[in-house]
Write a structure and sequence with these properties.
Helices cover 36% and strands 28% of the residues. By secondary structure, the protein is α+β, with helices and mostly antiparallel strands. Strands 1, 2, 3, 4 and 5 form a five-stranded antiparallel beta sheet that branches.
């Protein structure tokens, strides 16, 4: 039986790539006047939004920079993201 707060989801290869890229500090979120954009080389923004929605990644405090209307912030793994990444690495 699962704990009440646990959510089960399928970890795809794209999600694993996104977690690895975030762990290597290659994922960024840009806040602008027209909304938020998540960017990462080699990883789809849609996958990063899924990871953000599942609370596997979050904004890293103290890393925001920018000028004018655009602010850029680095993303980091949450404890749940680390657990998923380490669990999947152990099985591979």
């Amino acid at each position: 039986m699962r704990a009440p707060g646990q959510v089960r989801f399928h970890v795809t290869p794209a999600l694993k790539r996104a977690l690895r890229a975030t762990n290597e500090q290659k994922a960024f979120r840009s806040y602008g006047p027209h909304g938020t954009v998540i960017t990462c080389d080699g990883v789809s923004p849609r996958v990063l939004w899924v990871a953000l929605g599942q609370r596997l990644i979050e904004d890293e405090p103290g890393t925001s920079s920018g000028s004018g209307d655009i602010i850029r912030c680095r993303l980091r793994l949450t404890q749940a993201g680390h657990a998923v990444l380490n669990d999947r690495r152990a099985r591979a």
